Amino acid sequence: MAFESLELHHPVQAQLKSRRLRYREPENPIKWPYEKLLREQSKTRRVYPINPYAEVYQFRKNVYAIFTESLDGAGNPWIYLILGLEKAMLIDTGFGAGDLKGLVNEITGGMPLIVVNTHAHSDHALGDFQFDEVYCHEYEVLNLEKIKTPHAWDRLFDAEGNCIYTQFDRADLIGYHDFKIIGVPNGTTFDLGGGTEIELMFLPGHATGMSAFLDKQNKILFAGDYTHAYGTSPDHPYARYCTVTAMRDALMNIIARRSEIDFVYPGHGPLDQPSIVLVNLLETLEQVLENPEHSDFQEEMIKGGKKKVIYGKMIFQSSYFKYCMESLR
């Protein structure tokens, strides 16, 4: 797969304070035009002065998607906000540039807020520092503890303090603030009032405690990241869950309840996808486990300071699932 420079893309006409400088991975040819069309043409798009790093889109009467540009050269992450009659829920928090807490309060009118993480990767969890407590699956607590450091953003800058991947004002990082991490088991349900219930659904593989969240009223699965599994340190107490096999097994449990899911909102890329994408993903995982050498592409990547061979298998009508031999089981 060829790595393309930013200059090869048609720029998105947007007024965010951030500006992409370069990519460190190929841009998905489906994701890019979707984002461009949405960001330039959506009638619900709104940028609030309180946070010039975020674009807010309303997809349902009580469901908002918050777009932010990636700060580390990878795919742009989504943040989700769901409003009940009594409480609101924020799913993931992005990189933490700009006042996310203030933005959410402005949208909700100051509702009590439950903050949850799909997983502890920096593009989904560095905004946690703006809040007092965050929920995640119990197998993800250790990972989230590891990013609780004042140096969490250092890798975004070079030795001279310049932004490496995306231009933004370092002063706009809210900065380090200790917060409480609450680990919960699979199936935990959060009641937001008025019939709005959100269930945590364990979906490991990309991370040991990666979880999706099911909005039962809107029949939306906020699925987090599920298009690659690279494994983790064998010393991790839950390393067996950071595998293709663990993802396959958990996905089978979710698909068994597919009648409760109409739409899938992933952590990156196109939203409002039909739930058939889960079936297509499962078929791909089965193919990978049956014959992992039979991939559609291979590339080398540095992960954890070590060079790894990454394999990619196409997901029907979607993206690629990426894995390495060490992460199969």
Automatic annotation (TrEMBL):
The keyword Cell cycle does not apply. Pfam families: Lactamase_B. Transmembrane segments: none annotated. Keywords: Hydrolase. It comes from the Bacteria. GO terms for molecular function: hydrolase activity. InterPro entries: Metallo-B-lactamas, NDM-1-like, RibonucZ/Hydroxyglut_hydro. The keyword Calcium does not apply. Residues 76-268 form the Metallo-beta-lactamase domain. This is MBL fold metallo-hydrolase. It comes from Holdemania massiliensis.
